[in-house]
Each structure stands twice: as C-alpha cells, then as structure tokens.
Specification:
Blueprint lengths: L6 E3 L16 H12 L6 H15 L1 H10 L3 E7 L1 H10 L3 E11 L5 H7 E11 L2 H6 L6
Parallel strand pairs: 2-3, 3-4
Antiparallel strand pairs: 1-2
Organism: Noviherbaspirillum denitrificans
Protein name: CopG family transcriptional regulator
GO biological process, one term: regulation of DNA-templated transcription
C-alpha cells in the first residue's frame, strides 16, 4: 500500500513484556543459582534474558534475512480505529505481518476488523480485544 499506516517502533517500552514458562532440570537450575549467588547475574531472570539475547545476537543475520524475505515489520506496530476506518473507506485490506508486538486499538469493533484485516501473522504478541481476536480467529496464522 502506498500510504503510511500505524506506528512502528523498533523497541518495546519497558514493561511491555510477555511472560513465558520454561522447565529446567535440577542441575541446570542449580548452576544458574550458583552463578546468581556468585554475583554474575542479579537473579535467574537476568541470566535467562542474557542467554536469550546472546542467542538472538548469534543468529542475527538469519533473523534479519528472514524478516526481509517475509516482509515482516520488526518492532511494535499499532493499528488504530482511524487507521482501519481509512482502509475501509479506501476499499483496501490489510495483511498484518509483525515480528514483535502487533496491537489493535481497544475501540476497534469486530466488524471493522473483519472488514479491513485479511490476515494476521505475528511472531511475538498480538494485543487486541477478546472480541476482535475471536472475530479474526480464522485469519490469525
């Protein structure tokens, strides 16, 4: 589409995190606790985040190439009611493709979402009302 839509940021704000749960064996967990106890990390989460960032950095070239190949938006992408109304009025539809966080305004109705969003592919997190998520369920990949 030739017009700008939504707001993109390359970093999420502090506090914009998603919780994940992992299972570790007692030996791995003990080693993590030892490193925390010895002052290498402030807590378990600090070590795990650092390890994940190191792996993401090690695979940075692959990530960048894949993002470009799949035409993904990297970072935060927000779609407001006004954005979607403009699309509807122009007779256009949107294919949301985001690596990071995609958010759809809380005031977007399920009907407006269905009329303007063809597909949603998010590697990361999708924030939208339960009604919009339910309406788009068949279009979310």
């Amino acid at each position: 589409m030739g017009h700008p839509i939504a707001t993109q940021e390359n970093r999420t704000r502090i506090g914009d995190t998603e919780k994940i749960t992992i299972n570790l064996g007692p030996v791995d967990l003990g080693q993590i606790d030892l490193l925390v106890q010895e002052g290498f990390y402030s807590n378990r989460t600090d070590l795990i985040r650092t390890a994940i960032r190191n792996q993401l950095q090690a695979h940075g070239d692959v990530i960048r190439q894949t993002v470009a190949r799949k035409s993904l938006v990297l970072g935060l992408q927000h779609y407001s009611r006004a954005d979607l109304e403009a699309l509807r009025d122009a007779g256009q539809k949107l294919q949301i493709q985001v690596l990071g966080l995609a958010s759809i305004g809380a005031d977007v109705s399920p009907e407006l979402a269905l009329a303007t969003i063809d597909s949603v592919t998010v590697l990361g997190a999708l924030h939208a009302s339960a009604a919009v998520k339910a309406a788009l369920a068949g279009r979310i990949h």
